[in-house]
Amino acid sequence: MSEDNSYTPPKVWTWDKDTNGKWSSINRPIAGPTHDKELPVGKHPLQLYSLATPNGQKVTIMLEELLALGVTEAEYDAWLIKIGDGEQFGSGFVAHNPNSKIPAMFDTTTGSRVFESGAILLYLAEKFGKFLPASGPGRTEALNWLFWLQGSAPYLGGGFGHFYFYAPFKIEYAVDRFAMETKRQLDVLDRELANKRYLGGDEYTIADMCTWPWYGNLVRGVQYEAGEFLSVHEYENVQRWAREIWERPAVQRGRKVNKVNGEDWEKLAERHDASDFDTLPPSPDKPEF
Predict the structure, then answer these.
(1) Residue 3 main-chain phi, psi, to 5 deg
(2) Rg from Cα positions in the chain
(3) Strands of 46-50's sheet, edge to edge?
(4) Is the N end or the C end of the chain the one with fewer CB atoms within 10 Å?
(5) Total domain count for the chain?
(6) Judging by DSSP bridges, how do beta strands 76-80 and 112-115 pair with one another?
(7) At a CB cut-off of 8 Å and minimum separation 6, what does 191 contact?
(8) What separation in angstroms does the CA of 90 have from each of 36, 53, 100, 154, 220?
(9) Which residues constitute the domain of residue 171?
(10) Cβ–Cβ under 8 Å, residues 26 and 89
(11) What is the pLDDT along the chain (289 residues), one digit of tens a residue?
(12) For residue 118, is it within any domain?
């Protein structure tokens, strides 16, 4: 590894708006709204404000899984929040999530705002009594992996993804540091999934829904276009788990919601009714894993 000693941190850090690359227009060291903008409200009990990033996909997959079970009270409106345009800093969104990160949800039946993707999954699981055991070791194990993901994914997204894919220039030390951690995490999952079907055990739970959009898409080779770089084919148990979840119809629907890039058949900018999926062009008979 080469060394670059050209940078010495100053005694006091100051914000330089021009050093953040692609996201320089929205990254800032302060919180709060930048402009006044109320959020729209639709007809359904649950109002979701999101984008189909891995964190956004967690929630739309969960909602589609609930609807697939016939839980009509989980009907939702999914409104698009264009984070590249700074819409997460509108006053209405900040009122729902003071951290200005997608996704954010509002439950009109209880008047509750819910933010942070893991918190939303846990809220929905407890509200409807689905995809999380009510008690016992199975519940504990599922929560172990839910919180594992919430602590681990920032290393994949903000660490590896940023320095490998988004950074305006490549820093070998940073890429090596986070590639190593990402592969370690994949190995953690691979060893765990060698002995059980899902992360929580025999049952498909919110732990899987939370983890799949990050690590499932990573071993599919689409996340950060890093499949070859990370040799994701080596993680055979993660591949098996990811493929099984990929084949679930609710996952196929959920990953399309609030998606604005990709093929026309796989992106639905907003979802306000189940029939909205019918407006998309026909998808391949077997979408490629």
Answers:
(1) -115, 140
(2) 20
(3) 76-80, 46-50, 104-107, 112-115
(4) N
(5) 1
(6) unpaired
(7) 237
(8) 6, 19, 9, 24, 34
(9) 136-248
(10) yes
(11) 555 567 899 999 999 876 656 666 688 899 999 999 999 999 999 999 999 999 999 999 999 999 999 999 999 999 999 999 999 999 999 999 999 999 999 999 999 999 999 999 999 999 999 999 999 999 999 999 999 999 999 999 999 999 999 999 999 999 999 999 999 999 999 999 999 999 999 999 999 999 999 999 999 999 999 999 999 999 999 999 999 999 999 999 999 999 999 999 999 999 999 999 999 999 887 677 8
(12) no
Residue 201 lies in a domain: yes
**CATH number for the domain including 157?**
1.20.1050.10
